[in-house]
């Protein structure tokens, strides 16, 4: 697994954790990231992704909702929501090349989602990218 891919994977796990357990403390998230990644640069990258999504979560959710035809965010699988939020964040708020952000999100959807998750994530992020 590519180095930054591992950070993205851990960021998605933390986003999922907070989605299901909103009272999870920031210190607990930082601890869980550090337990899963040994390289400090990758820990920092995972944290920056997590923190960035959380800072812009409302805006990202509105963006996702605006392109997700016939899907309400709260009806999506929690794993898909976490992957979509991370992918949308990288597309909208970072310098990550758009193709890389989408490809990484598709791989995360394959890893954490069901059989249709990767196509679902691809379709939504492609629409966000096109906006």
TrEMBL record:
Coiled coil: none
Signal peptide positions (record): none
A GO molecular function held by the record: RNA binding
Transmembrane domains' residue ranges: none
Keyword Transcription part of the UniProt annotation: yes
Pfam family membership, one: NusB
Biological process terms in GO annotation: DNA-templated transcription termination; transcription antitermination
InterPro entries xrefs: NusB-like_sf, NusB_fam, NusB_RsmB_TIM44
Protein family (similarity comment): Belongs to the NusB family.
Role, per record: Involved in transcription antitermination. Required for transcription of ribosomal RNA (rRNA) genes. Binds specifically to the boxA antiterminator sequence of the ribosomal RNA (rrn) operons.
Protein name: Transcription antitermination protein NusB
Organism whose genome encodes this protein: Thalassoglobus polymorphus
């Amino acid at each position: 697994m590519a180095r930054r891919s591992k950070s993205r994977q851990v960021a998605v796990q933390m986003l999922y954790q907070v989605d299901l357990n909103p009272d999870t403390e920031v210190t607990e998230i930082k601890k869980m990231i550090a337990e899963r990644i040994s390289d400090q640069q990758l820990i920092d990258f995972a944290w920056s992704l997590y923190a960035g999504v959380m800072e812009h979560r409302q805006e990202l959710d509105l963006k996702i909702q605006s392109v997700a035809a016939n899907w309400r965010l709260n009806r999506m699988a929690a794993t898909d929501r976490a992957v979509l939020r991370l992918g949308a964040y990288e597309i909208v708020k970072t310098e990550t090349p758009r193709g890389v952000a989408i490809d990484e999100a598709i791989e995360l959807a394959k890893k954490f989602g069901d059989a249709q998750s990767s196509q679902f994530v691809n379709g939504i992020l492609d629409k966000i990218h096109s906006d």
